[in-house]
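Exam prep: given the inputs below (a chain plus glycine), describe the expected output before reading on.
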Amino acid sequence: MQTQSNCIPLTEEAALTALDRCVEQVRLNLPRYAGRCQNHSSVNGIYPACDNVQWTCGFWPGEIWLAWERSREDGFQAAGLSLVDSFYDRIVQKIEVDHHDMGFLYSPSCVAAWRLTGSQKAREAAILAADQLLTRFQPKGAFFQAWGPMGAPENYRFIIDCLLNLPLLYWASRETGDPKYADLAGRHARTCLANSFRPDGSTYHTFFMNPDGTPSHGETCQGYRDDSFWARGQAWGVYGSVLSYRYTKDPAYLDVFRRCLAFYLTRLPEDLVPYWDMIFTDGSDEPRDSSAAAIVACGLLEAAHWLPPEEAARCERLARQMLASLTARYAVPQPVPGAGLLLHGTYSKKSPYNTCTPEGVDECTGWGDYFYMEALTRLTGNWYPYW
Ligand code: GLY
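Solution:
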């Protein structure tokens, strides 16, 4: 594992200072988004408020719970629990839930609330969300279909991001004692391992299966090109593979974590924060995706729990270097109402070759903020993951 950079690792003390700055920003934002969510990405640095209808709505309550864990202030707990009501209503009324992103939505909002407060409503909502995700399983091919009507040929595919939706299922099996959730999570993860990761450790964003369940081909949606290296996809691969290891202890997940990370490190610019697609490297004027660096830092710190001591120490050092760079060059410098935590994220950038809707380029993103805060929290003590 190459560290490739002279970035000085973030110290314990600096991590606490950075985390406290995040808590201050979340505190400042509470009244602005009361009972509502933040848009997936900021607009000129400020998040519009939105109803609880986007795939990204779990990140704002996730930040609130992390702020509560750090501060123990009642205002954060009240805000987190009021969002549990909203997430409960969303899943009961099935509002914008016919897609695979149940883990992104319900792990940082409701699994977190249940772990931290014992809220039975949060537990029920998270189990309903896990049930909803099971309805997206395609037995022919063994995968959770990401988007669109079930079985539609143009959407007979899964995406690498889905690895972060699987912990909700492992959690649901442990909670209910019913193995069906973990069973389908494992089947999806194996399909993803076999197809989303290329031999060199780089990844496809989306992967199509044939109607008979055999693998077809990889395509990008949010990356630059089908054969390029979408930075956030690579980051989901790093963190998602080690989260699968956390629940299954199958060494195949650690192997793929190592391969995916190794490729990621070969394409990083000097400051350890990737361009939005890693086909671009040092010297490019393309935008960065700071959120990918925050996600990878979380993956490295999770992996440090499971790897042999020397490798674990290298992972932790690398995470501290990435977080030092994010804190020094990418963190929002002063709290401002409506601002996020991490600048220079990229949600979806249009290229001549991809199919995405352009949104949130060089902005704060909900997940970038959340994972930056999660990584800092991981550095400051024994944190029990929401994932
Ligand atoms: N999961 C969608 C994204 O990372 O943009």
